[in-house]
User: What shape does this take?
Amino acid sequence: MIEKQYTITAAEGIHARPASTLVGSLAPFKSEITLELNDKKVNLKSILGVMSLGIPSGASVKIVANGEDENEAMAKVAEIMKTEGIGN
Amino acid sequence: MNKKITGIAASNGIAIAKAFRLENPELIVEKTIINDCDAELSRFQLALDHSKSELEAIQEKTTQEISKDEAAIFNAHLLVLSDPELLGPITERIKTENVNAEFALQETSTMFIHLFESMDNEYMKERAADIRDVTKRLLSHLLGVSIQSPSMISEEVIIIAEDLTPSDTVQLNPKFVKGFVTDIGGRTSHSAILARTLEIPAVVGAKTVMSIINNHTIVIVDGIDGEIIVNPDHDTITYYEQKQAAFERQKSEWASLVNEPSITLDGHQVELGANIGTPNDVSGVLQNGGEAIGLYRTEFLYMGRNQFPTEEEQVEAYASVLKQMNGKPTVVRTLDIGGDKELPYLQLPNEMNPFLGLRAIRLCLEMEDMFRTQLRALLRASVHGNLKIMFPMIATIEEFRQAKSLFIEEKSKLKNEGIPVNESIEVGIMVEIPSTAVMADIFAKEVDFFSIGTNDLIQYTMAADRMNERISYLYQPFNPAILRLIKSVIDAAHKEGKWTGMCGEMAGDEIAIPILLGLGLDEFSMSASTILKARSQIKKLSKVEMESHIETILSLSTSDEVESYVNSLKGN
Assistant: This one.
């Protein structure tokens, strides 16, 4: 299991567009991937889950991947966070 | 055979094609107990597959024919269809409660809809609409009811609908949609305005077309006289083909005026501009001999998408318009949203009287960040051409001062950041609220120009909702009350050495044009397709002569009297 903390830098927080990109790119991975904001944990492969948190700009989120391809999955998260300007 | 329906002529021209009914079916879900879980699960899976391929096709088409941006919303919709948090509970319910898929779907998605609706973030609240949308698509497949998307039309048709919303209309492709007919709406409804921009014939307010016209029936739309002919016989088709040809001939006569200035018989020059909604409209303006853009409605940038346009996106759109206009005056109206124009991601509370509510500049001054972003984008784009900015729905001088000061602040911020801006941007206002028309002398000292928005000015002066057909008789552009207001606005501007334009429908009206010339209007902004007709008319009029009739016209008692007076002048 690996985890990493991100700060959301996108001006409008995680809106439909960045959330779609993030969620859509994680579908092929077998690992369980979750996102935590404050005390709430959601499935990062669920667009409704991610959107339901209404993650604002400046929020600090924890992403946890657990499974056989957890390293690749985390690398993908890092890539999307950067290319889509979501957070760092 | 040959059934004739009369409506309101909304956009010139004649089209003959098959009818395409754009329906909005009601989906009714009943709870039933099922015996075969596996069969129900595979029925659900099949509906999912169908919905996905349908969405993929719409997405593909929207990307190709409209834009990638407009298509992005369908990405999110597709992801919802494979969302484990949605599908898990539905499958679970079918298995453990033995309920039908429709019921399981509705229960589960309702839970999410409530969750989103209860969030204290307006944008997220509005995502509930996306879940509803996806649920509706899925439900329609389960129930075997088809729902339609205008972007999926791939043959020449005439759309028959109850009404077209602004977001429906962004999907219309003039290559296939040859014309449309709606049961409700008037000449100034948004679908009518869009039809004129796209130059497709349209008749609105036809009241009965949805109950009379079936799919695939041959229909003639006569947007010149506001008539629809259902199932025309051979002779009727021939007659309308000839009428269409005559219309085309007149258009080509006007085409010879494309590069001519708009000068009256006695040598007075006015400016003929066009109203546009997107950068794509500019080519039509130039082809039709537009000398300016008198109204660029920026709200289309904000519509048909799921979040605010970024500053960069806005700069790109404004710069594109300014570059294409190549130094010709371009008046951009800041965001005019609210009223009947809604944004899905900006959930505004329902109001009793949306036209009298929080809209246009009122909303912009409340949502200052959004407004500042637009002003910055306009300022950054200003170096590419002759930009003029106007604020909509100004009711008091304080509103203007407040908006103007935000403009000045953003301008100096940009200059401090070393970003070049045009120093000579004129800042004016729309005159569409009677209080402002009455106080025009006060405003004229502070604004750079006026642009009279007649559609709203008439609606607010007559206290008559322009969308309500039952009181459409009160939409009276020639009522002396309106003409007197227009006169005082133009006079007030001229007294301060400022100019006055008009960007409502009235500016292109053949009865209004002689009066407006006589009143001294400086700029006429209309649908691009009306410019050449107006120019041809102006070249045959004398300003001095029209001035001599103004006193008489303004002393008449009714709109009808004004109309007949102007018509009688034509005979001379």
